[in-house]
Design goal:
The complex is a heterodimer of chains A (135) and B (433). Chain A has 6 helices and 4 strands. Chain A is α+β, with helices and mostly antiparallel strands and 135 residues long. In chain A, the strands form 2 sheets. Chain A has a two-stranded antiparallel ribbon with strand order 1-4. In chain A, β2 and β3 (44-48) form a beta hairpin. In chain A, α3 (67-80) packs antiparallel against α5 (93-111). The termini of chain A are far apart. The chains are: A alpha+beta (135), B alpha+beta (433). Chains A and B meet through β1, β2, α2, α3 and α6 of A and α3 of B.
Chain lengths: 135, 433
């Protein structure tokens, strides 16, 4: 009887620890988008503050059905529209126009719930970026 | 007709000269003098980086306490060196040469032997460097620096380093490392290392695309772009050879001192997802121009690139495909690496690989910015990889620093370069072994 009671206590403790650990993991902050730089005096200056979500929210973002649509759209923006990203590549105007067109078509399909078709268009745009020489 | 041909040929010749000098360092006269052991006559003084400053004090206050290390280890500031990238450690004076992705190379010297650099100043200021990212140093006292499109030899660098006119001899002339038309800024942080087996210089050469199109590959495989080359380290017959192909962008390699095998990191494809594809740590089973490491068909590990998904891998590649030894987390940017040969660290670290993760630039969940350690098994294969030093990434997902390279210092401690804070750290062990 004592053994059964001991086993019960051990199981209870383990599940409690696991639960706490999972809960802690889910509550862990995932922060990004921030940018800091060191001043000439060695002080860390926040140039752009971060945005945060919980680990649970991050996992939900990764496993969402429209994750690839969102990811590809963001990638295309970063690499071909955002000034810093855009200047890293040797784009021609024709390439940029084609990327923009594919992005818009892909976005429209994704927004209409045609995720696979939308992803395919966005991947086409990313392929153009991939095959453009970097500066 | 003949005149037209001559005119077209002449224009083509001028154009090719212009193109071939697109990123030319423009220091041919200086190199000519320096390589003849002569002075350049230029009134140039190298930049000196003050060390005992408020900046250094604040880096000690704001970064060092955040770095987590295994018990018995400690981290200190070794030197302030702006834009610090890959390093080479001299064997006599203990000078550390520090490359940058800009136009300068620093030399940091601990003159009073207290394991902190007393002087950090510009190395060879009469040479116009162009992305001199990769210094490496030979056991017999020669320094080499791999630039974007040139490799320079600095004989007896520890002695000539005190003068602005340092003897500098091209091993590979400007514009001859890769065809100038293939030059880029991105994926151009070259790294060099010397093999004890064949006494040759090994230089990695990233390819200038996220994923290159197939039409580039006959040239790239032939030249060694998206691969690695080796050549003799003294002028004359270079005997240049391609020893690895199918690499996307390797920015760190070293030889296992136990079996001489070549290991290298490889940064993998962007734009496929936040958590894919993995970064790589590779071991070369042999050194030859047909040994293929997967790019552009694989984006990292066994993940096929979107650009080549469904396309059959050519037989010549497939039969010589080498999988990575370690799949690192995606987008951590694995860069410089070394084998630990010192005696200061506990035995478990002997002959282990230390490698730097620069940290992600485009992932929603920032990662990396740490030093990893990979232990090998008795056959020299990777057994386990784990973080060794971390804490440069804050809870807010911003970077206090970004580790680039890890090299062993003369006393068996390790140096870690950081191109965000612009410093070199020294990690030592003072616990019980």
């Amino acid at each position: 009887m004592k053994k059964i009671f001991f086993l019960f206590v051990v199981i209870l403790l383990c599940s409690s620890i696991n639960g706490q650990s999972a809960n802690h993991s889910n509550q862990t902050k995932v922060c990004s988008g921030g940018f800091t730089k060191w001043t000439k005096d060695g002080e860390l200056e926040v140039v752009r503050p971060s945005k945060c979500m919980t680990e649970k929210e991050y996992q939900a973002y990764l496993s969402a059905p429209d994750y690839q649509c969102k990811y590809y759209l963001q990638s295309i923006w970063k690499e071909s529209e955002r000034p810093y990203g855009k200047k890293q590549y040797q784009y021609t105007e024709a390439k940029l126009a084609k990327i923009k067109q594919l992005k818009e078509e892909g976005k429209a399909l994704c927004d209409a719930g045609k995720l696979k078709e939308g992803e395919a268009k966005l991947k086409e745009a990313i392929t153009i970026i991939s095959w453009t020489r970097m500066n | 007709m003949k005149h037209s041909f001559k005119l077209i040929s002449g224009i083509a010749c001028i154009l090719s000269l212009l193109i071939s000098n697109a990123y030319s360092a423009g220091d041919a006269e200086q190199i000519k003098a320096l390589s003849s052991f002569k002075k350049t006559g230029l009134d140039v003084k190298g930049e000196v980086i003050p060390q005992d400053t408020k900046y250094a004090a604040n880096i000690k206050k704001n970064i060092l306490p955040n770095i987590k290390l295994p018990q018995g280890f400690k981290i200190e500031l070794f030197a302030v060196a702006p834009d610090a990238r890959h390093m080479a450690v001299g064997r006599n004076k203990g000078t550390v040469w520090i490359g940058t992705r800009k136009t300068k190379v620093w030399q940091a010297t601990d003159r009073d032997m207290d394991n902190v650099a007393d002087t950090v100043d510009q190395f060879a200021p009469t040479v116009k460097f162009d992305i001199p990212n990769g210094p490496c140093y030979s056991d017999d006292g020669h320094l080499y620096i791999a630039e974007r499109n040139r490799v320079l030899w600095f004989p007896a660098a520890e002695y000539f380093m005190e003068s602005p006119d340092t003897v500098a001899i091209p091993i590979i002339d400007q514009g001859k490392l890769i065809p100038p038309a293939e030059e880029s800024y991105n994926h151009t942080a070259r790294v060099c290392a010397i093999s004890k087996k064949d006494n040759k210089l090994y230089v990695s050469m990233g390819q200038p695309f996220n994923v290159a199109g197939l039409e580039k590959y006959p040239l790239y495989d032939q030249v060694g772009i998206g691969g690695m080359i080796r050549f003799n380290r003294f002028p004359g017959n270079l005997d240049r050879e391609v020893v690895a192909i199918g690499i996307r962008n390797s920015v760190g390699h070293a030889f296992n001192p136990k079996d001489g095998s070549l290991w290298f990191t490889d940064n993998q494809v962007d734009g496929m997802g936040d958590e894919t594809p993995p970064g790589e740590l590779n071991r070369a089973p042999r050194l030859a121009s047909d040994v293929w490491y997967g790019h552009p068909y694989y984006g990292g590990g066994d993940v096929r690139t979107d650009e080549y998904k469904g396309k059959e891998i050519p037989a010549a590649y497939a039969k010589n495909y080498v999988k990575p030894q370690v799949e690192m987390i995606a987008h951590a940017a694995d860069l410089g690496m070394m084998f630990y040969t010192g005696k200061m660290f506990p035995k478990k670290y002997h002959n282990a690989i230390f490698s730097a993760q620069h940290g992600s630039w485009n992932a929603v969940k920032p990662r990396g910015a740490r030093v990893m350690v990979t232990y090998l098994d008795s056959k020299g294969n990777a057994k386990k990889t784990e973080p060794f030093a971390e804490g440069w990434l804050t809870e807010m997902g911003t970077y206090l620093g970004r580790p680039v390279d890890v090299q062993q210092y003369v006393d068996g401690s390790i140096l870690v370069s950081d191109d965000k804070a612009g410093v070199i750290y020294r990690i030592s062990y003072d616990g019980k072994k």
